[in-house]
Structure formats: C-alpha cells, structure tokens
Design goal:
Order of helices and strands: HEHEHHEHEHHHEH
Radius of gyration: 18 Å
CATH class: Alpha Beta
Shape: globular
Number of domains: 1
Length: 211
C-alpha cells in the first residue's frame, strides 16, 4: 500500500510540475520560456559553435555531452579519454545530460543539449521528457560538407572533444535516420558560416515564439 501511495504522490508531483512549466511558458516572454533545444550532428560539423552562439542570442544554458562524459570519468576536459566511448559510457552520458536538463528546466531555465544524437532512442528520450514536462522542444542537425569537416578536425587543439576524422567516418556509418516523430521537430542547419547558422536557428525559434 505504501508503494502505491508513493507512486500516486510521485505522479501528482509530476503533474503539478508540468502544469507549472506550462503556465510559465504561457506567461513568459518568448526569450524566457522554458524550452529544450537539441543541437546534434556528426563530429566536426559545428555543434558546439552553434550551441554557444544560440545560447548567447536566445538566453539558453548549454549542456555539452563531451564535457559531461569527462566529468563522469573524473578527467580534465582537455585530456584524451580512454575507454569512455563505449556504448555503456555513452548511455551514462546521455542519461546524465537528461537529468541535468530536467533540473534546469524545473527551475524555469532554457536548455540546449549539445551532443551527436546519432541514435534515435537518445533523441526520443529527450523529446519525450520535454513532453512530460509540458515544454516545447526543437531539434537542429548540423550539416557540413566532409571536406570542411576534415579540415576543422585536423586543426583542433585543446578541445574537450576527442573526435578525429576516423571518428567522424565511424559515426557517419552508424548514424541512424530520424523517425517521423523526430523529423517533425527537426531543422537541418548549414554550418558552413557560423553566424549564418546562428541566425537560421534563431529564426526557427522566433517563428515558434521561443526567442
């Protein structure tokens, strides 16, 4: 009986939380409405640059999966990570990003999650959590020609990401296409020019009255 009562209390808390966030989203001006933005794409396509620019332009907090992974591993951000790119580690990383996103949004914040999002279950998990919290969710996928990606990856120095050209090729082969559910919420962003990419993303948010 106590387990049933606790489950009922948890459900009531979740419902109250969702109602509060929905009301906040209705009352707040666009640039302050609790919102989830996923910034995904293959390594070297400019995800973090877009996330930083969008955060500055539209009042978001960025959760960067590369940083979260190394925090979980207990190593400095710029130290190469060994053994932390297994499916198990990746699963832990996305779960921690999901937890942090929930904490920030429950305080009325706006969140960008900067991660590859190569696998559909990870995308769906975040979109479903946003739905449970009754907040809008938007997904951007960064697109860039492979030649430029290769140049960018080869010129990286002291970056928290350990991605190389070989990692890009491996992830490209493993990339899962977006399901209809995810595609409806997703806009592809050409990241050839960083400023143009930020303007395009902000334009999408403004069109949804979220910036």
């Amino acid at each position: 009986a106590s387990e049933v009562a606790e489950a009922q209390r948890a459900r009531m808390r979740a419902e109250a939380e969702a109602h509060w966030l929905f009301a906040l989203g209705t009352l707040e001006e666009p640039a302050k409405r609790p919102t989830l933005v996923l910034v995904g794409g293959l390594p070297g396509t400019g995800k973090s640059t877009l996330a930083r620019g969008l955060a500055a332009a539209a009042n978001f907090t960025v959760i960067r999966s590369d940083e979260v992974r190394k925090e979980l591993a207990g190593i400095p951000a710029t130290q190469k990570g060994k053994g932390i790119y297994t499916p198990e580690w990746t699963g832990r990383t996305y779960l921690e990003c999901l937890r942090r996103f929930g904490d920030i949004v429950r305080d009325g914040g706006r969140v960008i999650v900067d991660a590859t999002f190569a696998h559909e279950p990870h995308r769906i998990a975040f979109l479903n959590r946003a739905r449970e919290l009754a907040i809008p969710a938007v997904s951007f996928v960064c697109r860039l020609d492979p030649g430029t990606v290769r140049e960018r990856l080869q010129s990286r120095r002291d970056d928290v990401s350990d991605a190389s050209w070989e990692v890009f090729e491996e992830m490209r082969d493993r990339w899962e296409e977006l399901s209809p559910q995810t595609r409806r919420r997703t806009t592809d962003i050409d990241t050839t020019n960083a400023n143009d990419a930020v303007r395009a993303a902000v334009g999408v948010l403004r069109g949804m009255e979220l910036a």
